[in-house]
Write a structure and sequence with these properties.
The chain is mainly alpha-helical. It is built from 26 helices and two strands. The protein has four domains: about 140 residues, no CATH class; about 140 residues, no CATH class; about 240 residues, no CATH class; about 70 residues, no CATH class.
């Protein structure tokens, strides 16, 4: 038996190894964070650290700290299996010093061991980095800003126009009033933006600060060279141009405008501390941007999650009471019920939040399609992984934090505390068997996202019951299958031959059905209510303006409400009431409204052209009066003479 004096140096060595490993992982994470996880070069400037300039000025350090913390958590999870996995790397665990285990894991994570090629660790690290980038809207925020500026009306301020010679100014003002689809309008917009950007740092009052754009000098030079080349092509077009040549120039000008918008987006992000400040700068530059506030997803999800937690706690207490545990150990039963309620609230709360958040993100990126399996699967996979993580944390939490030594030195056979009369289960078996709950989170999130479709006015009790039935049955079946798979995996991996009991599976399925019914009854109703009557005053004003415009365009209030609150194919199946809550769609809705009104008028006139013409008197159709015969007309004319 090893004496205490021999154990102390080993423990100290393990702690030092873990400390050094944490420092290595943290330093590596800070440097690796700047490497992009996306191939889109359109949103990246030509600078040494391009990713740095895709964040708002105040968000970059927060994002990097988040990634460092996430990397350290990943490092801790990789330490859990213990040194018995050394055989996977063809290292003799008997001769390997235990003090070096934590340091070895750190070197494997950062890829500093050239003799090992562990692709799955690199894939996990890259995916973790991509999630942090996406959480802080990189590069989606820049792409969204480019899309918003493309759709936004543009009217430069008087101070910017005054800096342009009179002859050119009059021509630009005239061209900016033309149709936005014309080449002259697009070129006038590019010309005005170039003139406005040239005014930065010239001593005049300007919404853009020259210092914020200094890192992108190389990009501006490329934009300026492309602008000069296009100016020559457009000048030559007026001499001998063709329709095909004009279309080619339109596409070239559109590409140039997107580079303008990307350049402006980078600089404004270095100048502004918040999204609101960025919108103010862009509006001062001449863009009319619809300000879209948050949708209050927490307020939508929180009430349903509270009811789910209450149902779970009541179920655990009732099961313990039937089993006789509540009377023998009341405190343990109550503590276990609270733990289960917290886990259920976190699991289904995250699933609902991810369904709403990711659906909104797909709508903003214009990739969401109603009834699209691909969109729902992408949402379900993310929610399923989070559900698995919640179950793992709730299962392994107590054992993982027993001591720092357990984190560093724990091996596969490490045993979790188990209930009396039940076989003990190893940590890794608990983690693997918990993967079956991936299905419950994925089903809950995907079904919930699919129930947010249709007319937002359909919030009657029958509609709510229908949503509750869909989500309740789906989640109940998913929970039953997850419980069955978890018990089967634990039994198989633990090497025991335990008889499968149906009662716990049936009870878990019933609770899953109840929780799903609550989510289906409350969450879609709250979402649709927020769309029909937005609680946010800014969004309420936007909806009133849209209804007024629709009434003016379509003719009646009933037609306006039907158009605003019903799904539209031109918006990929979402309603205009929801589309205006996203900056990427705010201006598209108005264009679609005019397009639909024009098409309806054309269809109406086309139908009327095939019918006998009627004269309307006091809004009523006058009867068709048969014309008299020619002889009768002559007789009347003769009597008149």
């Amino acid at each position: 038996m090893t004496s205490l004096s021999e154990q102390i140096p080993n423990v100290i060595g393990q702690y030092w190894s873990a400390l050094i490993g944490c420092l290595i992982v943290a330093a590596y994470a800070r440097q690796r964070f700047n490497e992009p996880t996306f191939p889109n070069r359109e949103t990246l400037p030509h600078t040494v650290a391009p990713l740095r300039y895709l964040f708002l000025r105040s968000a970059y350090e927060r994002a990097r700290r988040t990634y460092v913390i996430a990397s350290l958590l990943l490092y801790g999870l990789l330490l859990l299996p213990g040194k018995q996995v050394l055989s996977v790397f063809k290292i003799n665990s008997e001769t390997f010093p235990p003090q070096a285990w934590a340091l070895l894991v750190a070197l494997l994570l950062v890829g500093l061991l050239p003799t090992t090629n562990i692709k799955w660790i690199a894939m996990i690290e890259e995916q973790l980095r991509r999630w942090v980038h996406e959480w802080f809207l990189v590069p989606d925020a820049v792409k969204k800003t480019i899309g918003v500026l493309e759709d936004a009306p543009y009217e430069p301020s008087a101070s910017q126009l005054e800096a342009i010679p009179d002859a050119q100014r009059e021509r630009l003002e005239a061209d900016l009033k033309l149709k936005r689809s014309s080449l002259r309008y697009r070129w006038a917009r590019a010309t005005m933006l170039m003139a406005s950007l040239d005014q930065m740092g010239a001593g005049a009052v300007h919404p853009l600060k020259k210092a914020a754009f200094d890192p992108f000098a190389e990009d501006f030079d490329a934009i300026h060279a492309r602008y000069k080349a296009l100016a020559q092509d457009i000048a030559n077009l007026s001499k001998s141009g063709s329709a095909e040549k004009e279309e080619t120039l339109k596409r070239s000008v559109d590409i140039l405008l997107r580079r303008f918008y990307a350049y402006i987006s980078w600089g404004v992000r270095q100048q502004a501390d918040s999204d609101g400040a960025m919108v103010q700068i862009l509006e001062a530059l001449g863009f009319s941007i619809s300000v879209v506030e948050g949708r209050g997803l927490f307020d939508i999800v929180a009430p349903a999650v509270g009811v789910v937690a209450g149902i779970t706690m009541a179920y655990v207490l009732a099961w313990d009471a039937i089993d006789g545990k509540l009377s023998t150990s009341t405190s343990n039963s109550v503590l276990g019920a609270l733990t289960s309620a917290t886990a259920a609230a976190a699991m289904y709360g995250f699933a609902a939040f991810i369904a709403l958040k990711r659906r909104g993100a797909q709508i903003e990126q214009r990739v969401w399609r109603e009834a699209s399996p691909k969109c729902q699967i992408m949402i379900g996979v993310r929610a399923g992984l989070v559900t698995w993580l919640v179950i793992v944390v709730s299962t392994v939490y107590g054992d993982a934090l027993r001591s720092l030594a357990a984190l560093i030195q724990s091996d596969m056979p490490t045993i979790l505390p188990s209930n009396a009369g039940q076989p003990e289960v190893a940590v890794w078996i608990k983690i693997v068997s918990a993967s079956s709950w991936f299905l419950a989170g994925a089903i809950a999130s995907a079904v919930l996202a699919s129930r947010l479709t249709g007319d937002v006015r359909r919030t009657q009790k029958s509609d709510r019951v229908r949503d509750a039935a869909w989500l309740g049955v789906g989640l109940g079946l998913a929970v039953a299958l997850a419980q069955l798979m978890q018990i089967s995996l634990e039994t198989k991996l633990n090497g025991t031959d335990e008889t499968l009991r149906i009662a716990p599976i049936a009870a878990a399925a019933f609770v899953g059905l109840a929780c799903g019914a609550v989510l289906g009854f409350m969450v879609p109703y709250a979402c649709k209510g927020n769309l029909a009557t937005p609680p946010d005053p800014i969004m309420a004003r936007q909806l009133r303006h849209l209804l007024r415009e629709a009434k003016t365009t379509l003719g009646t209030a009933a037609l306006a409400e039907n158009w605003v609150f019903s799904p539209q194919k031109g918006l990929h199946g979402i309603t205009p009431a929801e589309a205006i809550q996203y900056e990427g769609y705010a201006h598209v809705v108005r264009t679609l409204l005019n397009s639909d009104a024009s098409r309806d008028r054309e269809e109406t006139w086309s139908e009327r052209s095939d019918r006998p013409m009627r004269v309307a008197i006091d809004a009523e159709a006058a009867p068709v009066i048969p014309m008299p015969a020619v002889s009768a007309v002559k007789a009347i004319a003769g009597r008149g003479r």
